[in-house]
Design goal:
By secondary structure, this protein is of the alpha+beta class. The protein contains 2 helices and 13 strands, in the order ββαββββββαβββββ. A hairpin with a 2-residue loop joins strand 1 and strand 2. The radius of gyration is 16 Å and the shape is globular.
Amino acid sequence: MTTTEMDVRSAWDALEDAKLPSGYHVEITDGKIIMTPQGRDQWKVILKAAPQIEQQLAGHGEILSDVMIDFPSSLYGYAPDLAVVAPGSELNSRGRFEWHDLEAVLEVISESTRDNDFEKKFWMYARCAIPLYVIIDPSDQTCTIHSRPTDAGTYTQQEKIAFGEDLVLPLEGREIVVKTDGFPRAEG
């Protein structure tokens, strides 16, 4: 098995010996460790979407949830709610996938993560040329698919679909369709 090696220190190295409490989603943004409890709606979306994606991948890639990914900066360490890893991708010497292995990232936002998902993650995922970034928002009951990333840290195409419509993920050489009618709708 061949491994890849990042040429920068991983943001996750800062947490190597840390004892973190369970039940929290941990990420690193701008060099700051951010711990947020996983919300009910977030968890339910993940439980509905992940099996659909896994079944359709049929061994051509893999789906991860809340798994550390190495990014090309020691200031950013994200563990996406859902990440689709390209077929043939291999773990690096740290035992993690890297940004360039990802075909799609799906983040389920909440009020506490809204700014990070719409700004900092949006910028980092685009800068890293991740082909699809999907923001799933139970509060407005929509999924927004961002595609065509640029070096400037933005995506040039955006499509918004309402819960109840099919979420279509055009991946390299294949298409994944996620039924959203069972996604929870946030109250309030």
